[in-house]
Amino acid sequence: MNGHEAAMRPPHPPEPERAAELRRRFADEARSERPDLSALCLLVGAAADGALDEAGIDAAQIDLDRLAGLVPFRPGGPRSWALALADLLGGRCGFRGTPADYQRLESSLLHEVLRRRRGLPILLSVVWMEVARRAGAPVYGVALPGHFVVGFGPPEQQVLADPFDGGRVLTGGDAELLVAGATGAPLDPSMLTPADPLDVVLRILNNIRAWAAARPERSDVALWAVDLSLLLPSHPARLRYDRAQLLVERGDFLTGATELDAYAEVVEAVDDSAADRIRHQARAARSMLN
User: Which neighbouring-strand residues pair with 140?
Assistant: First the structure.
């Protein structure tokens, strides 16, 4: 294998002791009064990439600070902010996305997005938000179905920009087309509200799990992603079922069966037949031990 091929290999998680420490820090940050989006994203990156140490995490935060220092001082209204960020990040710095970025785990890791200047829409939006926030912009994430963008200004003056397209400022029609392309449904005004930082992190982790689901040999990635998702104060209950299934798939039949039984007890309160099916899965998992 040559050096280029080695560089293209997806990162691998850190050693267990480091991974446990990162989970503790992630849980503490997620439960803090004002969770820091960049800190959470970098902890996700460290959980994915054993090569990302504390110096690397600090360097990524310093890079965001550096980029914020290049933004013109107080450009003006929401549209001026959006254009200033597009000029700096999309133009001068070359941050944007391509279809190929959807095939790379690195496209969901903030430290790699800062290094490569390529990533998924939601990670590029994190770069936009974190740089703009540090520069004093009225910025937030907008979780359109299927395509994350950023918003500037209050609802009555809202300006949307698409970091995946270099920060192109969107018209109302552009946003409608993005939503229609992803869902086939019309744009609902509720889709334009600011996204909660923890919802942004959960969506990033969901993207990582989707990447791993298409690559069964990387169930290790799916497992740490679901473990981090479960540390968020608010998460779908079904994640416990997903974790149990992953454990069974990875050969940890006893732990997986135990977690399936525990989830069946939760489900039983609302759906007896579903609980029975889950218990049957638990018995099947235990039978693998015989």
Answer: 151
Sheet containing strand 168-170, strands side by side: 139-144, 147-152, 159-162, 168-170
Which distant-in-sequence residues (6+ apart) come within 8 Å of 102 by Cβ?
A: 120
Give the tens place of pLDDT for each residue, 174-212: 888 888 887 888 888 888 999 999 999 999 999 999 999
Residue 256: its H or E element: helix 253-268
pLDDT on residue 82: 96
Burial of 235 (0-12, 13-18, 19+ CB in 10 A): middle
* Residues 121, 37: Cα–Cα separation, whole Å: 15
Contact 136, 159 (CB under 8 A): no
CA 151/CA 128 separation, integer angstroms: 10
Pairing state between β 168-170 and 159-162: antiparallel
- Going by pLDDT thresholds of 50, 70 and 90, the confidence category of residue 52 is very high
- Are residues 8 and 104 in contact, defined by beta-carbon separation less than 8 angstroms? no
Beta carbons of 28 and 233 less than 8 angstroms apart: no
